[in-house]
Amino acid sequence: MTAGGRAGGRTALALARRGLCHALLLASSCLVGLPFVWMLSLSAKPPEEIFDAGFALFPDRWYLLENYGKALTEHPLLLFLANGVIVCGAILVLQILVCAPAAYALAKLRFHGRDLMFAFVLIGLLIPQQVLAIPLFALAHRLGILDTYAALVFPFIVSPFGIFLFRQFFKTVPDDLIHAARLDGLSEMAIVWRLMVPLAWPAVVAFSIFSVVSHWNDLFWPLIVIRSEELMPPPLGVVAFNDEEAGSDYGPLMAAATVIVSPLIVAFLFAQRWFVDGLSMGAMK
Amino acid sequence: MSAGVVLDRVSKRFGTESVLADVSLEIRDGEFLTLLGPSGCGKSTLLRIIAGLEAQDAGSVFIAGRRADRLRAKERDIAMVFQTYALYPHLTVAENMALPLKMRRMCLAQRLPGIGRLWPGRKAVARSIRDDVAATARALEIAHLMHRKPGQLSGGQRQRVAVGRAVVREPSVFLMDEPLSNLDAKLRVVMRAEIKQLHQRLGATILYVTHDQSEAMTLSDRVAVMHRGTLAQVGTPQAIYADPENLRVAEFVGSPMINTLSAIVASPSGVVLDGVALPLRTGLPAGGAVTLGLRPEAVSLAPAPGAGLLNGTVRLLEHMGAELLVHVALDGGETLTAKLDVARAGLVAVGRAVAIRPHLDQVLVFAADGRRLRCADHGGAVPASRGARA
Ligand SMILES: Nc1ncnc2c1ncn2[C@@H]1O[C@H](COP(=O)(O)OP(=O)(O)O)[C@@H](O)[C@H]1O
Ligand SMILES: [Mg+2]
Q: Is B270 helix (H, G, I), strand (E, B) or coil?
């Protein structure tokens, strides 16, 4: 009897805890998701409804075509998107070209100063990009690359996060596999590209998403180094146009914002499976 | 195509721990030599040094008469089969086996994905690789697995693929690091025979590592017994078994394990074991301690207690099919295992007192430090013991 009662009490308690957990998760995801939903909602509303006092998710009068049409025609939105693809693509390719060999050396090669090097990588993880903005700007000025694609790309080529993530993954690859590859005649670079990177595929995908999302959405650095309209990545482009002429025309602005985040969402949905794998570690099962 | 390997005073330490100390060994051209030793004694480390995957701290490695210390792994013409097989998990069996050939026969441009195909001459090389892989796969009976990934293979199949990847590029020396230890007992015996046949077919030099003494005894031309980073003894399986250099080798080789009994030297030509005088010459002064090594088959059952016999009580019987293992607690407190013909099962039962006759010509005598004492002659070994064995 008592045992049964106690067991019942325990399951009730567990249920309550689980319920609380879910309530918290739900609340926090609402908090995160709300601005996004609000953006979608505004992008479908006519100007007079946007400043209504009430909170309505759906507009009384659908204004989709007008807002999106205006966003796509009045701003060179496609140009901004193309700039975003070029810059993010270049950053990602260069990051992987640098991170994978560096991470391999830190994970699997024995050399003097390795632990110190890794400590520097960890320190690099802790430094926010903004702290380095002024020296990087000065460097870009010296190199004469201000207001070019190169200025948008060069500060991000060495990614401490990428090195760290790849290194943790590469560490799980058994040494025997690397030994076998060396005996089979693979050079160290061939080991990186033919063995380590394919085995760490989930980490590569996860890192790619992180990298693309953060640089696609970056406003801070482009704002500093880019002036020419034809080089502007999407967020800078939209903001710049908003400043100059749109004034309080938020409908088209929100429509433009929706257009520039949508490629990210599509990409994430495609890569979701690897993304989770990549962050939960381990190349070898 | 095969070649010998010579190790000259090779040493290795990890941090402060000495893992290999002055190991010198010659593996002859075409020989099957087994490194036998308990885990952690440095066998894998020695293989990695020979393969060029790890640098020794001192000493030299010669391969095919050439000093190999400065050669990198891929330049040593050595293939290795790993305990974990180390197959590339993202490649199919065919790709796993083709990779070593690709790295050797194709130039960098030809290996590039996509555009490599357009490079002149690639087609012919690719065909030769495909043919060689197919021929090896047929010989190892894995031709039907070519398009699977390692994750979709059983343990035995993976083992064959690992051997195939090593064989396909026809190296002069094979190193095998406990290749059978991840297989179940039955498969291990099958694969053991196949490895033996492979050696005969290829005529290659094979250095085989195991901690399983039965593998070492059945496969090898010679066995090198390792202990804590040194070679305890190198010799034919028969010599290692019947004529061990020290107690450790005697204990490591043979199953069930050799019986070790402490005895006191009574005179230079006799010892006393549990109050029983045995005419064994040690050459040591009276009062010294020695250890007698008695293989389970080096004793027999005597019909009744008597002079030169050890008395005890049967504690346990193990039927092994054709043989019977009798565990006896001797009256002096030590235990002894005897291997008897199963026909004698009627003479023993648990709890019954028995008299054990040691075959004095097969007794191995070891000094207190484990060294073998070879001066033992059998002081006119008891004629009755010969009669009992016949
Ligand atoms: N890379 C290494 N770093 C430190 N110690 C090692 C390393 N490799 C092996 N050892 C140590 O060397 C000893 C011998 O290892 P190993 O050669 O693998 O033995 P075995 O193959 O005979 O089991 C072990 O004590 C092991 O801990
Ligand atoms: Mg080992």
A: strand
Of B371, B80, B28, B5, the C-alpha closest to B222 is: B28
First to last CA, chain A: 45
Cβ atoms of B363 and B296 closer than 8 Å: no
Count of pairs with CB atoms under 8 A, one residue in A, one in B: 55
**Model confidence pLDDT, tens digit, residues B160-191:** 999 999 999 889 899 999 999 888 888 899 89
The alpha carbons of chain A give a radius of gyration, in whole angstroms, of 24
Amino acid at B293: G
What values do phi and psi take at B209, rounded to 5?
-110, 135
Distance, in Å, from the CA atom of A256 to the CA atom of B99, rounded to the nearest integer, reads: 50
| A33 DSSP assignment | H
User: What's the fold here for domain B247-383?
Assistant: OB fold (Dihydrolipoamide Acetyltransferase, E2P) (2.40.50)
* pLDDT for position A77: 87
Q: What is the pLDDT of residue A208?
A: 92
Beta-carbon contacts of B77 under 8 Å, excluding residues fewer than 6 positions away, are B3, B63, B64, B171, B172, B173
Owner of token pair 């690859």: A173
- Cα separation, B39 vs B16, in Å, equals 19
Q: How far apart are CA A248 and CA B97, in angstroms?
A: 66
Q: Is pLDDT of B53 > 90?
A: yes
Please say if the pLDDT value at position A62 is more than 50: yes
Partners of B206 in the β-ladder: B32, B174
Specify the domain boundaries for CATH 2.40.50.100 within chain B. 247-383
pLDDT in tens, A167-222: 999 999 999 999 999 999 999 999 999 999 999 988 998 899 889 989 999 989 99
pTM: 0.83
At CB < 8 Å, which residues of chain B contact A?
Answer: 48, 51-53, 72-74, 78-80, 82-84, 86-90, 99-100, 103-104, 151, 165
Q: A11 C-alpha to center of ligand 1: Å?
A: 49
Angle CA(A265)–CA(A269)–CA(A273) in degrees, nearest 5? 140
Q: Which of B74, B86, B89 sits opposite A176 (nearest CB)?
A: B86
CA distance B224 to B230: 10
* Banded pLDDT at A278 (limits 50, 70, 90): low
Which pLDDT does position A1 carry in this prediction?
44
Question: The tokens of A146 are what?
Answer: 């201000």
- Determine the residue among A169, A183, A191, A196 to mutate to test chain B binding: the one whose Cβ has the most chain B Cβ atoms within 10 Å: A183
* B79 to A183: CB separation less than 8 angstroms, yes or no: yes
Amino acid A176: pLDDT: 94
Class of domain B5-242: alpha beta
Instruction: Report chain B's mean pLDDT, rounded to a whole number.
Output: 89
Tell me how far CA of residue B6 lies from CA of B13, B68, B69, B205, B222, in angstroms.
20, 10, 12, 12, 15
Instruction: Encode pLDDT of B78-131 as tens digits.
Output: 999 999 999 999 999 999 999 999 998 988 888 888 788 888 888 889 999 999
Which residue CA neighbors atom 7 of ligand 1 most closely? Answer: B14
- The Cβ of residue A186 has, within 10 Å, a number of other Cβ atoms equal to 22
Using the Cβ of A186 and the Cβ atoms of chain B, whether some distance falls under 8 Å is answered with yes
Contact criterion met (CB < 8 Å) for B51 and A190: no
Q: Which domains occur in chain A, in start order?
A: 3-65 (no CATH), 74-284 (1.10.3720.10)
Residue of higher predicted confidence among A263 and A183: A183
How far apart are the two ends of chain B, measured CA to CA in Å? Answer: 48
What is the CA A101 to chain-centroid distance, rounded? 22
